[in-house]
Amino acid sequence: MIKEYIKLKKVESSIIEVENVNEASFGEVVEVKSSASDKSMVGKVVNINDDTVTIQVFGDSTGMSTQNTKVRFTQRPFEIALSEDILGRKFNGIGQPIDDGGDIYAAKRYNVNGRAINPVSRVYPRDFIQTGISSIDCLMTLIRGQKLPVFSGSGMSHNRLAAQIVRQAKIKGANEDNFAIVFGAIGVKHDEARFFEDTFRQSGVLNNVCMFVNYADDSIMERIITPRAALTAAEYLAFEKNYHVLVIITDLTSYAEALREVSSKREEVPSRKGYPGYLYSDLASLYERAGMIKDAEGSVTLIPILTMPNDDITHPIPDLTGYITEGQIVLERSLMQKDIYPPINVLPSLSRLMKDGIGEGYTREDHPDVSSQLFSSYSHVQEVRDLAQIIGADDLSEADQKYLKFGDEFENRFVRQDYYENREIEETLDLAWDLLKILPENELDRLSPEMIKQHMNR
């Protein structure tokens, strides 16, 4: 039986407590209506202690009183209505339309909490996704069904990079009829959300995009639901409607900070830097919803973006993310200061699935060896640059001076590319061979003589 309560025990920011409650469930949706406002707000049960229930309210609780505030328990989890009509639409962080397009009418509603894909049901990702960005396609290849985060810093060009990937991505087996993009924005400024929307419109993919946007001036509690609503929509499109779905979520740091605030208000014991001790499992509950499953033609490929506080890659958010996901793309501030776009630092970046999605039959037969050689050579460039700062570039050996030249050319010709430049994988690999010609042949120890002979003369 649905019950309604009209007296609160406590109101603290967006957290309220109700006592003498019977038969409430963890995660249950509640409707909250304050005497100070005619508008109902949505909340969720986040803690149950005997007969006292703690509720997290998604909305502005200003003016809410412990008296004459109605709380109605709905006896259902947090759900959103989904149909193929969500494509081309824009929703707030809890799945309510904000584009004046009307409500979504669907035969079924879906629990946003979802669950991780059963490992037994997973299909191993192997299909190459071409982003048109050389450093990603060659050195940290994105594979269909992979979760590959972007580690960035505040004020860097991660939004432009994400927009470029969305505009240029080509997925094997996907076309306009079965390719969709789900975009989740957490705590973004209005101009950032507008930038993505304009980019989608200009590139002609807006009708294939479903947007969930939580603005910086929206409820901080709403940020906890936003990525879950986006992933639920992606799962529906992929596993029920057979779409190949690319999910972009920005910024996971805002999500984690919202989680920390809720944890603090619930008076939970904090862990590193004040984040809750369950941050790892909470992030995993998001990331592990990406992938491919048996007997389903669709797939969910996830690119979460997170900004590292103080550019610290050992911060709990990127640190834990790195353990869960299958690699990372790391943006470097020093490259951005050299006016290099995209400022991808290839050395700490990697894709753990690329080895099974490149080479003959996928990209080109020389791709694995060329990738390995570029990593090896660019790694040595850093050592030579350190040595040059000590003894001077003029006193370096001839081979080391060629490494210096290779490093500069690699950053300026291979890593750097225009925002609207879309390189085919063959073009990227040919450019890599052109750069490797700078080095002495005896330094190319990751390439076979036959391969060198075959490709150096192209």
UniProtKB/TrEMBL annotation:
Residues 14-74 form the ATPase F1/V1/A1 complex alpha/beta subunit N-terminal domain. The keyword Transport applies. The keyword Transmembrane does not apply. One of its GO terms (molecular function) is proton-transporting ATPase activity, rotational mechanism. InterPro entries: ATP-synt_VA_C (IPR055190), ATPase_a/bsu_AS (IPR020003), ATPase_F1/V1/A1_a/bsu_N (IPR004100), ATPase_F1/V1/A1_a/bsu_N_sf (IPR036121), ATPase_F1/V1/A1_a/bsu_nucl-bd (IPR000194), P-loop_NTPase (IPR027417), V-ATPase_su_B/beta (IPR022879). Keywords: ATP synthesis, Hydrogen ion transport, Ion transport, Transport. Produces ATP from ADP in the presence of a proton gradient across the membrane. The V-type beta chain is a regulatory subunit. Belongs to the ATPase alpha/beta chains family. This is V-type ATP synthase beta chain. It comes from Finegoldia magna ATCC 53516. The lineage of its organism: Bacteria, Bacillati, Bacillota, Tissierellia, Tissierellales.
